[in-house]
Amino acid sequence: MKTPGEFAIYETQHWSLGHRVDSALPGYLMLGSKIDTNNLADLPAEALTSLGPMLARGQDALRRLFEPKRIYIGRYGHMPGYPIHFHLIPIYDWVERLFWQDARYRSLELFAEPSDEAGTDGADLTLFVWREFCERPVPPAGEGPSVSEAIVMLRAAFEPLETN
Predict the structure, then answer these.
(1) Backbone phi, then psi, for 86, in 5-degree steps?
(2) Of 11, 57, 65, 141, which residue has the fewest beta carbons closer than 10 angstroms?
């Protein structure tokens, strides 16, 4: 999975980490295999061995740099032509506030009172992020750094450590 240059953050022999190209949510990362398969079992052992540490580094960088309330990590895609990839989705306090303020998403609260944090889950907030920050022509205004500023910060966080 080749990330366009302006969205690329870090690469290893087997993985490419970049900002999701169609997302207005700062820090929404995609970790994609450089091997053309959509099946984990088809990846070489070295790629599988490095997957966990890459996900952990991405999560840690998001946590340290942007302090989101939550970070969701998952695999959702199955479109032909795209190798296996993972989403790292930061959920900021302001994202949750926008979710609770948007009446269109209240139908997701089957058993909860409005503003009941326990009444929502990762699926609800992931849907909200996808619909509002990835698919809407004009996404809601966010807080904090812009996508381009977040990319610069993430690239710096992934620079190799200097050795003495």
Answers:
(1) -125, 145
(2) 141
**Residue whose token pair is 């990762």:** 122
Structure tokens at 131: 């619909």
For the chain of 164 residues, list the mean pLDDT of each consecutive stretch of 10.
84 96 97 93 96 97 97 85 93 95 77 57 91 96 96 92 44
Cα-trace Rg, the chain: 17
Q: How many CA atoms lie within 13 A of 114 on its CB side?
A: 11
Cβ-count burial of 154 within 10 angstroms (0-12 exposed, 13-18 middle, 19+ buried)?
Answer: buried
Q: Which of 132, 151, 128 is nearest to 65 (CA)?
A: 151
**CA torsion 117→131→138→153, rounded to 10°?**
70
How many whole angstroms separate alpha carbon 19 and alpha carbon 110? 33
**By three-state DSSP, how is residue 163 classified?**
coil
Domains defined along the chain, listed by start: 5-158 (3.30.428.10)
The whole model's pTM is what?
0.89
Which residues neighbour 144 within 8 Å (Cβ) at sequence distance 6 or greater? 26, 66, 92, 94, 150
